[in-house]
């Protein structure tokens, strides 16, 4: 590629750098957060913003490609919340526990008020035993 | 200056890939790995667009778009599988 020139090139490079920092922070959150719901929060929100900023900056570097890049941005903006929502719901239904410091589980309370069985205790115990075995072996 | 910032952006995105891969290997169970995989694909897609800009070939944009579609379908299928089986 040719070296980016002018104000547009500088602005595009700056946006790309900011977006990639958000991508890095999202991955750091996925590594450091205590339970799966916190990890999903960090991993989805900040990577969505990082995607938008990075792709927008790259689009400013190549102004002729902007329509197609905007298409990709819109696709990410629509599908990313859907996939993280599906993952969070399936994790909650398959009995993943919240971290120890959590104060409220609104979905579990809602399901209990509607008379829906929570994830079965037997399955929960199996998962807990598996987790402890993994922790002792590690 | 702009080239320097683009290089730093590449470094940050690469470090993010390494951290997400660490979570993918560490687990501790399958849904956590699915989250790490989701984040990995979301970091890899801007890198693909960056490769398109770097090489100057517009066809790579289509590669990134198709990759995003397939990654989304894969994650939704994984979530459905963890929920109630295939």
List keywords for this structure.
heterodimer; A: 138 residues; mainly alpha; 2 domains; 5 helices; 77% helix; B: 86 residues; Helix Hairpins; 90% helix; 0% strand; flat
What can you tell me about this protein's structure?
Chain A is mainly alpha-helical and 138 residues long. Chain A has two domains: 6-99; 104-138. Chain A is built from five helices and no strands. Chain A has helices at residues 6-32, 36-61, 66-93, 106-113, 121-137. In chain A, helix 1 (6-32) runs antiparallel to helix 2 (36-61) and helix 2 packs antiparallel against helix 3. The longest helix of chain A is centred in the middle third of the chain and has 28 residues, at 66-93. Chain B has 86 residues and is mostly helical. Chain B is built from three helices and no strands. In chain B, helix 1 runs antiparallel to helix 2 (30-55). Helix content of chain B is 90%, strand content 0%. At the A-B interface, helix 1, helix 2, helix 3 and helix 5 of A face helix 1, helix 2 and helix 3 of B.
Give average pLDDT of chain B, whole number: 89
Structural class of chain B: mainly alpha
Helix content of chain A: over 70%
Number of helices of chain B: 3
The CATH architecture of chain B can be given as Orthogonal Bundle
Write down the domain tally of chain A.
2
Q: How large, in whole angstroms, is the Cα Rg of chain B?
A: 15 Å
Shape descriptor of chain B reads flat
What's the assembly state of these chains?
Answer: heterodimer
Topology:
The complex is a heterodimer of chains A (138) and B (86).
Chain A: H1 6-32, H2 36-61, H3 66-93, H4 106-113, H5 121-137
Chain B: H1 2-26, H2 30-55, H3 59-84
Helix pairs in contact in B: 1-2, 2-3
Brief synopsis:
With 138 residues, chain A is mainly alpha-helical. Chain A contains five helices and no strands.
């Amino acid at each position: 590629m040719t070296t980016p020139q002018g104000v547009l090139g500088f602005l595009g490079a700056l946006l790309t750098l900011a977006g990639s920092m958000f991508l890095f922070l999202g991955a750091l959150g996925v590594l450091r957060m205590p339970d799966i719901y916190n990890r999903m929060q960090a991993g989805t929100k900040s990577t969505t913003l990082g995607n938008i900023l990075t792709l927008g900056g790259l689009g400013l570097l190549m102004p002729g490609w902007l329509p197609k890049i905007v298409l990709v941005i819109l696709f990410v903006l629509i599908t990313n919340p859907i996939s993280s929502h599906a993952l969070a719901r399936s994790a909650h239904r398959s009995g993943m526990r919240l971290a120890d410091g959590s104060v409220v589980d609104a979905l579990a309370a809602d399901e209990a008020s509607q008379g829906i069985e929570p994830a079965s205790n037997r399955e929960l115990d199996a998962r807990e035993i598996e987790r402890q075995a993994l922790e002792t072996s590690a | 200056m702009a080239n320097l910032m683009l290089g730093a952006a590449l470094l940050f995105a690469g470090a993010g890939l390494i951290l997400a891969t660490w979570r993918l290997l560490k687990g501790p169970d399958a849904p956590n790995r699915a989250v790490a995989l989701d984040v990995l694909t979301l970091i890899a897609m801007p890198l693909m667009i960056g490769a398109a800009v770097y090489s100057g070939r517009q066809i790579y944009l289509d590669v990134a778009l198709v990759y995003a579609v397939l990654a989304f379908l894969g994650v939704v299928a994984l979530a459905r599988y963890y929920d109630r089986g295939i």
